Amino acid sequence: MAQTHTFPDIVELNVGGQVYVTRLETLTAVPNSLLWAKFTQSAPADLPKDGKGRFFFDRDGHLFRYILDYLRDSEIFLPEFFKERRRLQKEADFFQLPELATRLAEVSKDDSYAEESGDPEEAELSSPVTVSTDRSPRSPGADAGFITIGYRGSYTIGRDIQADAKFRRVARITVCSKISLAKEVFGETLNESRDPDRPPDKYTSRYYLKYNFLEQAFDRLSEAGFHMVGCNSTGTCSYGSTDPGEDKLWTSYTEYVFSR
Fold it and tell me: Which residues is 148 bridged to in the sheet?
């Protein structure tokens, strides 16, 4: 039987294409669960891995973050109007977390009753294993932190300032944060080529995204429980011509700060 110490203290997972970085003690927090069995009763070589050596599980990658929340704190906080409780219950069953699955099943039943009776209020759970829909900040822990999203854009304004400005495509969206947070939120859409092989507990300001839609980045941050806490922007005119008939090219740099 392989001992627990054969696995690293910081473990990288690929769950359905989503990358997670967490502690070994988190994965083994619930005795007799599937993850506890995989990471205490097996050797690293026995578990399937992806092309980058991450331990691979062919499950719903987006819902897995709630499984991790439960393993960390023995409770989870679901987003408002969360519609996937039954799917999350299936994930809890798969990962052999019976208490979580039972609580989710109870809430699902209460939701069904509320829909039939017209009562919009959600049931409160009496167990310490709480499923909540409030937006309270998470308790301090390994998963808390800040992520800064930055981008540089440009646009032209001609002589007729009433006309629509001609915006250019955002060239690159940069990510500044702790490595583990960036990988958890953005997964395979994160380009690590400018700062490869950096340990998960370190910070970087050199990562960027493989797409250039800010809303796509914001959606991922929202799904991961982040909220915007600040933003700033600067703009400069690149051309110094005084000819009023010549188009002016303006460039701007904007940063958005998110917290969880």
Answer: 176, 257
CA distance 38 to 43: 8
Question: Does 167 score more than 80 pLDDT?
Answer: no
User: ∠ CA(58), CA(61), CA(67), 5° rounding?
Assistant: 100
pLDDT more than 90, % of the chain: 47
92-96, 212-216, 243-247: the lowest-pLDDT one: 243-247
Token output for 187: 């997964």
What's the pLDDT score for residue 249? Answer: 72
d(CA 105, CA 92): 10
Tell me: the pLDDT tens digits for 24-56?
999 999 999 999 999 999 999 999 999 999 999
Beta partners for 149? 175, 256
Token pair, residue 10, equals 């910081």
Contact yes or no for 105/86 (Cβ under 8 A)? no
C-alpha dihedral over 83, 134, 141, 15, to 10 degrees? 0
List, in sequence order, every residue forming a beta bridge with 253; answer none if it has no partner: 152, 234
DSSP E strand stretches across 97-214: 131-132, 146-157, 166-167, 173-178, 190-191, 203-209
Sequence-distant (6+) residues with CB within 8 A of 125 are 103, 106, 107, 131
H helices of the chain, where? 24-27, 34-40, 64-73, 85-94, 98-117, 179-186, 214-223
What letter does residue 123 receive in the DSSP assignment?
P
